[in-house]
Amino acid sequence: MVGKPLVKTSRMTMVNMEKPAVTVDIGSTIKTVQGVNVTINCQVAGVPEAEVTWFRNKSKLGSPHRLHEGSLLLTNVSSSDQGVYSCRAANLHGELTESTQLLILEKEVGAGLGSVNCSSSGGAEREAKGSGSAAFPREVQQVFTSLFVQQKR
């Protein structure tokens, strides 16, 4: 097929709260938690063969990103990776650009907080078992405080 390149796309939304890795075709929306490996596929066809170039928020991606046969691999994603990733396929007859939005989700309230140890001195400690580094929400602190006050009586 001589002419402008073609790109295989998908128009789905992938929501990931627990898998260690996700793979989608360009054109999809990805909503995932931090620490996941994300692969975005950009399969192109065209004669002459199309050259694939990747962009993030309209800026060309450099060498630190892993590229393999048109696919982009983002390892251990964090909030700094959030953005719009675009795949441009170009040859002598033209070019075509398709995009995927990557959104990094916060874990749900209560997720990743670990367990709570209650001591007889009336204090509460959080055991770090997950990636949760935020303090307990105010509502949870109020519940713990009221429980400890009742326990002391």
UniProtKB/TrEMBL annotation:
SUPFAM superfamilies hit by this protein: Immunoglobulin
Coiled-coil residue spans: none
InterPro entries: Ig-like_dom (IPR007110), Ig-like_dom_sf (IPR036179), Ig-like_fold (IPR013783), Ig_sub (IPR003599), Ig_sub2 (IPR003598)
Alphabetical UniProt keywords: Immunoglobulin domain
The keyword Phosphoprotein belongs to this UniProt entry's keyword annotation: no
Keyword flag Amino-acid biosynthesis: no
Domain Ig-like residue range list: 20-103
Transmembrane segments: none
PANTHER family: BASIGIN RELATED (PTHR10075), FASCICLIN-2 (PTHR10075:SF100)
Protein name: ADAMTS-like protein 1
Taxonomic path: Eukaryota, Metazoa, Chordata, Craniata, Vertebrata
Gene name as annotated: ADAMTSL1_3
